[in-house]
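Progress report, Aim 2. The chain analyzed during this reporting quarter is listed below.
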Amino acid sequence: MSMKLLKYENHLDLNSMKELPDSYAWSSVDDDSPTSCGSDEPVPVINLEDPNAMMQVGHACKTWGVFQVMNHGVPMMVLDEMEACGRKLFSLPIQQKLQAARPVDGVSGYGVARISSFFPKLMWSEGFTIIGSPYEHAQKLWPHGYTHFW
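Predicted structure tokens for the chain:
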């Protein structure tokens, strides 16, 4: 198997991988699978213009841990630009993303999901947590073009 496991929190170099390592393979019978919610109900959609939105958010957090919002007032142009920036970030080569890796004891930066340690298998995902301004991380990722992300 041609695979590189990088030194920061089991970061997998997806570009060099030829087959899925067993440590990432979730079967449909895994009881602890992160996609097993035990419900056929859809993820809650909360209308922020609804007077009961606060109670609905609390209920969704307690029962699902996730929810979708509508009528949030964020302009579509801002959402589109944010999505484009995310795509640009996650399309970077792994070695470049690791320039902004979250320290093992840190909370901010590039890395695997913090909840992954609660499951028997590794998650097939990557993430970027930003606490405060993204400026410092952008400077590490794009040393000569980070001001676009400010």
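The longest strand covers residues 45-47. The chain is about 25% helix and 10% strand. These observations will guide the mutagenesis work planned for the next reporting period.
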